[in-house]
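ugh ok so i messed up the first submission bc i forgot one of the chains. this is the corrected input, ALL of the components this time, i swear. 995 residues overall. if the numbers dont match what u have on ur side tell me asap before i send this to the collaborators (the ones from the other lab, u know who)
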Amino acid sequence: MDAIVLQILNGLDKGSAYALIALGLTLIFGTLGVVNFAHGALFMLGAFCTVTLSRILTLSHEVVDPTRKDFLGNPLKVDVPYIYDWFGESTGAAIIDWAVPLSILFAIPIMIGIGVLMERGLIKHFYKRPHADQILVTFGLAIVLQEIIKYYFGANQIPAPAPQAFVGSLDFGALVGFEPGAIIYPYWRIVYFCFAMLLVGAVFAFLQFTTFGMVVRAGMADRETVGLLGINIDRRFTVMFGIAAAVAGLAGVMYTPINSPNYHMGMDFLVISFVVVVVGGMGSLPGAVLAGFVLGILESFASMRQVIELLPGVNQVVIYLAAIVILLTRPRGLLGRRGVMED
Amino acid sequence: MLGLNKKDASLLVVVAILVVCAPILLNPFPENSSLAQFNAGYPDLMQRFVIFGIFAIGFNILFGLTGYLSFGHAAFLGAGSYAGMWMMKLLSINVIPAIIFSTVIAGVISLAIGWISLRRSGIYFSILTLAFAQMAFALAASVLTPITGGETGLQTNLNDPRILPEFLGGGSAVDGNIPKPSLFGIEMTASFEIPVAGWLWTFNWGYYICGIMMLIAFYVAIRIFRSPFGLMLKAVKSNQQRMNYTGLNTRPYMLACFVISGMYAGLAGGLMAAMDPQVGAERMQWTASGEVVLMTILGGVGTLIGPVLGAGLIKYFENIFSKINKATLEVWFGVFPDWMSDFFVTIVYPFIGKGWHLTLGLLFMGIVIFLPGGLVEGGQRIRKLFNRKSSDASAKANPAE
Amino acid sequence: MGILEVKDVGKRFGGLQALGDVNLDVAENTVHAIIGPNGAGKSTLLNCLVGKLIPDTGSVMFDGQSVLGRTPYQINQMGISRVFQTPEIFGELSVLENMMIPIFAKRDGAFRLQGIDNMMGEKDIVEAAEKMLVDMNMADKREMHAAAMSRGDKRRLEIGMCLAQEPRLLLLDEPTAGMARADTNNTIDLLKQIKEERDITIAIIEHDMHVVFSLAERITVLAQGTPLVEDTPDNIKGHPKVREAYLGEAA
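and heres the new structure output, hopefully the right one now
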């Protein structure tokens, strides 16, 4: 029993990332009808927003510390971040410690900007082109974005630790009455899951309760009619693209403590995210979220020792296997609508 | 000639001449010149040109004719390589059984994957093929270790049985060494070198074997493009509804096309193993599938020669362009004043050397946006431009007409 | 007994009864029109005939054989060809290639792997296609991209492609919808010519009364998923029920 709870919990954080990326993909697909292979790159860019911010925060100048001496007996030079000068040492250190959550504020405008730029500059010209062309051009864009990041940040993983307060684990088992130590769950993963739920909730609330969201939903259902009503749907779709980019970016920002970012993390997630979208049902937002969590949890169950002993290698392929089975038995995915992408 | 019309036949002849003369043509710079690093006429790279050419030709038969975008072709390439390796381990070091078996195995696997994937079209088909290929990759790297060698991969060994008689390439060892892949005793690595003035031309057996295979593959592809079967595949791309209401069953046409395309990939994989007898699972990864997509689009999807050009271009980039470093650039721009030279080096550097992927990505995007027909369409447009100019000129020259 | 017999066919979509107990008998070598106001179930009925939809009840017999449960290509191979409301042709192919495909399908059946032979080397097929293009009066457009043609020409090509299969029954789904008057008249003339020159049964679904009355020998009027009357054009014109359900509404 405790093992099952543990696997569900383990599946949640990966599932959250899948769900967030798939949500953004579906938003773009549903509103714009564009298959965006560069979406994983947006996730990666978000993660590198964190890296950039923590580099900015730790920008330093050299100060001679008269009280200490180096091993040659000269006065010791130490790097002091500018931020210490402005906010004092303790506040400055706290800000640096909280770089990852702070990156959320930093990443939102940047990601929206990148998203809008992408839509206006590139995607816009591909609305009427075949899906294969959309896949190809965004695939090219993903390579370009990833290479730019590689040029500036190098090919290695760059660690971005969580704030001190969230380092460590929660003994979840003891909390709900299992043996102590049976279910250990890192604090940051809890944070990530809660954050993902909040973000998903925010997107749904936005679509459900604002006029803007209503128009976008109508546009998703029937683009031409809304266009005929004289509503400037194109501009709204641009904004939607920005929001989708921000969702992917934020998923990346918060994922950095779980997995240190590197330039190809986007591609790694992209392949699975597409599987998630298709399993959830192309164009269905709840489907994307549901499928994200289901597949995340499924993957974590498949990596249990007992399961692997029974079916070796199943942990590697379970997501793809699930995708194939679902696509063949439920052609429209878990919650897909009729008539989407059935050309 | 050979059942081709004049235009196709001359294309085949041109390609054949290029393949035969490649060791000379690809080495335009003298051995000791500063530009010698741009010579591509060494066996290893030339083999890759033609092998990936075969891979891309096969991919184009599927994508170019039917418009079905497979993101899982690397699985067939990898399966072909493994199959070829096993032939060279168990049967004989002779490359012929390896190549045949790799093509057959890839055909069988593509039949199975195609049977399922072709139930869906559009992006669902792409995702299904991607899922299968990723599964194949994951399994090859883990559970299938007894067959694939897992993460270390598969190599020829001294204790491999190789049961065929020696003159057919059997035997575990030759003079105490692992035998090298060969064709009735001629080793694939064997070359003869001809130094001419400052140039060095290397004629390699392995390359010519691959080259011949590519010419055959290319010829078959032309025949398929011009056949009633090819017409049906183009019709599938154009209008499946009309196909169905014209009494044609699209499924077997698609499946046959998918299997043929997979067999091309298997042949390429088998040749890879025959040229360099070691295979790792990464050959099946989806990035490898992406690469063949890039090649085909870059060269010109749906055209005959495009995929070969694309394959050549990408492999040239990967092996030659990527080796340009900062020092080379500084030499090139050395003619300018220092500040200008520094400026140019800074601008250009991110796009070359290790950054060649960036150039490739930009080039690829440019092609998809502006030249959907790839390099071939680019060539046609340039030719049209010149034709118009010359016809304008002749019109001016003969105002009486 | 007609070549096409539809008996008690019914089809529901959720709560909507699209077709209820449709009976239809199309006699061989006649032109039979099916008319009715929008939403009368004309298209649903047609889709049941060609295998796109499977009716919930009833039977559809073509030349004594049931078509139910067969796929569109199988039904086509039985001898039913369909012309669509918007012309469905192979836009990326040349006009001649368009015309060759149905002739291949007629000769080789639903699938034949002929991967090495030269398509243009199939003399019989090329000749038959060229002859059909001459019959359709579009021999001069032989090498043209089909997508580049006018709508009238696309319609002409599509009809030609269907005829090239020598079908026993030709189904036309509003063949003049969205056409200019001149194109409509051309299409009517073409269909009249086909009727005179060939042994063929034509079933036509149409909105345009001008087209219907210039072609049809029998007319079935559908309203709300059921046939109202079936009679000759002259009798239909004067039928009070029809005036009420259809013509009155249109006038």
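quick check: Chain B has a mean pLDDT of 88. that seems consistent at least. The domain at 6-27+41-319 of chain B is CATH 1.10.3470 (ABC transporter involved in vitamin B12 uptake, BtuC).
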